[in-house]
Give the backbone structure.
Amino acid sequence: MISIPASDGYKLSGKLYSASKNIEKNKVLVINSATAVDKKLYHHYASFMAEKGYQVLTYDYRGIAASRPKKLRGFKASFTDWGKKDFSGVINFVRKEFPNREIVTLGHSIGGTIIGMTENNHEISGIINIGAQTAYYKDWAKDQKVKIYFLWHIFFPMLTRLYGYFPGKKLGMLEDIPKGVIDQWHNRRKITDMSTQMKTKGIDLFYDSCNAKLLTLGIEDDPIGTEKAIKRIHDLFEASDKEMQIIKLTSVPIDKIGHFGFFSRKFKDTLWLKTLTWFDSI
């Protein structure tokens, strides 16, 4: 493991996967995690990309997994901090360690959303976003909308007020989450326009300054990252050469992928290879 300084000096836990010497390429891939996910979820995908010649960096946001403080109650963090401070620091770290290599990014869920909250995102050459969305509840799959709304906007905030953070690990629901992240996400539930909401709160966004090539991927059976949901983030990258694709289950073929299944090793020769081919073309 390595320590990566965020732009404000906060120490983030990261892991660097060294590129295969036989086919080393001139690119560094940074993987931005989903909200309550340990960077370990991306281990097999990161290893795959390293074997294909990429330097790969995974990391945990402040307050999550190995980047959390001993005491999470009272700890200040929001998902805009993850973009403005954490991902900015990661980009600075990569640029310092690998000054002559292109930076490409895979953003999973919130990991794609925060790219537009990062002032130095102009350093990135290519982005693949998977299931990146804004948490507006009307965008979710109709058959699961009520269940997700109850979890995200009633159950999660209620427990967060009680504990001072969301105790995900205790409940077997991924990682613990700082209160500020839950509060900020909860405030997104009924507002369609994330940009206006953020700007009225004094939060600067930098989607329009990002000129990286962009591939937005949606999964047919992802109840959160629906086509309507991911299009909201996709459209914010106004300066990018971009395309959006929905992965159909019959194209793999498989019965289920969902919001997290993309990173299963069963997709090594299909979905993972698709992303490799795209990144290679940058």
Notes: The domain at 2-280 is CATH 3.40.50.1820 (Rossmann fold). The chain has a mean pLDDT of 96.
